[in-house]
Amino acid sequence: MRQACQFPGGGDAAPMIRHLPALAAIAALAAGLLGTAARAQVVINLDSVIGVAGTDAGSVAGVGNRVNLTGVASDSGVTNLIAVGSTGSSSFNFNTGFSDSLDRVIGSTASAGLVIADMKHDSGASGLLILDTNNDGVFSEGVVSGFGLHGDTFVTFDLAAIRANAGMAVGTPLTLTGQAGQANWTVYTSTSAAIIVDGNQRAVFDWTASGPTSEYSTFSLTLTGTSRYLTFIGLSGLDLDNYGAHVGFANVQLQGVPEPSTVVLLGSGLAGVAVAALRRRSVKRIVPPLSLAD
Hints:
Blueprint: H1 13-18, H2 20-39, E1 42-45, H3 46-50, E2 67-72, E3 79-80, E4 91-92, E5 115-117, E6 146-150, E7 153-158, H4 159-165, E8 174-182, E9 191-197, E10 200-207, E11 216-223, E12 229-235, E13 246-256, H5 260-286
Antiparallel strand pairs: 1-13, 2-7, 3-4, 5-6, 6-13, 7-12, 8-11, 8-13, 9-10, 9-12
Helix pairs in contact: 2-5
């Protein structure tokens, strides 16, 4: 007598085997959906967060807004980098707080607080944003998108508000990419800039005219899901002179990374649906007919 192959939970293996093509199709669907989830990215251009070309970031800044605050770095101690009343905190000492302890700020109030979308620190006819991307000492490159500010001026973005506005989950990690450099200025001086996240130094740029000209940098940073306040600041620089300290951040993008837990849950859910469906079919096939002798 043939011994039927049994699954641990009971039932003949034959019905399950017959439905392997269906299981394979469901698995392929799951793989496709998981692949789509893994590739899905939300890209945010920070100049567009400020507004159309010529928009001053200070005009759209406030508690709970995507732009939280613009202001000037203090030359006498710690600078608060977020609007009063904001949840959490972010501050930095631009005189002594860098990892190398070098002073890069004089508390300059030139164009104080102006952070202009797609332009330098001013919105005049000569204010188009151009960076010396090949470091040849000549600003002959094309106009770029981004935002400009004068030395010692900063802008802080609220990543929680940005995530929510873009439909990303709370705690979504982000990648930050872009370019930075002196903007539209051929009278070279020492100028600096920095990127601060929740009061922590993430990047520092020091541009000089001595030796090989260095007026341009690129950056790529990973921001954890708990990162909240993202600050960009132009600085007077290591010569502590704000003359010509015109800074531009260009093509600055935040990119949302799907949370692994979301992908795992999606896969688990699809697998569960497949197993349940096949189990129901198998149970239907192995129930014996009622016997009048019983």
